Amino acid sequence: MKIRRKTFDLVLTLGGAVLTVVLIAAGSLLMWGYSYTNSNVHDQLAMQQIYFPTASAFAHAKAGTEITPSMIPSVSQYAGQQLLTGPQAAVYANDFIAVHLSEMPYHGVYAKVSAAARAATPGSAQAAKLTGLEQTVFQGTTLRGLLLEAYAFSTIGEIAFIASIISFALGGVMLALTLLGLTHWRRVPEDLEFPRERHHKEEVPQAA
What we know:
Layout: E1 3-4, H1 5-48, H2 86-102, H3 110-119, H4 125-187, E2 193-194
Helix pairs in contact: 1-4, 2-4, 3-4
């Protein structure tokens, strides 16, 4: 089956135009998703008013205190800053809160602390101590989980940003190809068919 080459080129050009629109629309939606996620994470973290320890605190890092030596490589880079971004939230959760939880009895595992509190004799000093520890561990574990959730959403936002850039780039390439296809379509003769017929030369027998 043959069709006019001009019709074939027009179909390809229109397909390229549709794909260009889809890619640009996808890029716009992904960019909106990045902007929304980034601003939402920032606003939610700002409401918590969490600040990293000051730079002077890291000068006296010591195991068992608020600032331990393990915190210097990661936590100290945000010294004195307010916690507002996903990467900051991950550092605070994993390298600050998690360290303090691990130094608590039962390594700060809420399930273990809670089980010990329930097993203690009601009204005893040990029960009161474990109940207080249980509340502290619960608060620390909850805050750590919320911060890591904020980090996860910020990571999704970063992925959306990268995807939007790729989508816009591909959309630009498709737009250029579509314009080239449109230019070629205008130059194609009306009577040219696709695919072209191939003319084979007849073989002339050679004289013996």
